[in-house]
Structures are given as C-alpha cells and as structure tokens.
Fold this protein.
Amino acid sequence: MRPLALPVTPSLRRMPWTALAAAALVALLSACASESPPRSQLAVGQAAVDRATGPAAAEAPVELAMARDKIARANVAYANKDYALARQLAEQADADATLAEAQARSLRSDRALTAVRDSIRQLREEMARK
C-alpha cells in the first residue's frame, strides 16, 4: 500500500511537526477503531417490543409486526457482526414498538371518550324526560 501523500500548502509549512504527527495518529486510530456491538440498543429494542406486545397486539398489529420483524433482523445482523445495521434496526424496532403502544393507548382513549359521551347523552335524555 502506498503511503498517503499530503499536499504541502503554506499553512502546512507553518504547522509544527508534532501537531501534524498527532493529527495523523488520531486519523489512523479512528480509521482502525471498530464499531462496538450494539448490545444496549438490542436490549432496549427487544424490551420495547415485549412491552408493546400485550396492549398493542390487537390494536396496532401492523406497527407491532414491523417492530418484531426489525428486532429479528437486528438480531441476525448482530450475529453476522454487522453492528451498524443491527444498531439501526434495533433503534427502528424501538420506535415502531413505541408507536404501536401510543396508537393502542390512543385507540383505548378514544373508546373511553366515546363511552363517557354516550353516558352523558343518556343522562341528559333521562333528565329531559323528568
């Protein structure tokens, strides 16, 4: 492999060699650094899917299915040591599961509101008859 040749510009001529060596070392170390396994993201994503499975299973099945699919794909990517993809899919699974929970809560709230409004309507009708 050929060494990297940097163009010599007037600003590089004025830069102390120690600073240039330090910059080169930082660049080399960052290039060699490997991505850490996304264990915490996988755990958070799996917990979100598990949490959403109960209430959202019937009320937001599409979003929950997407979350389950993404966490399964994240686990496969993790096993294949594709940590960037595993992290991304785990974060998306967390978001999808959270969305499923929120939609399920919203649907339950709408049903409760409808029930309260029906009760109020019935009470008004009874009061009007008396």
About this structure: Residues 83-129 form the longest helix (47 residues). The helical segments are 10-14, 17-32, 39-59, 61-79, 83-129. The mean pLDDT is 82.
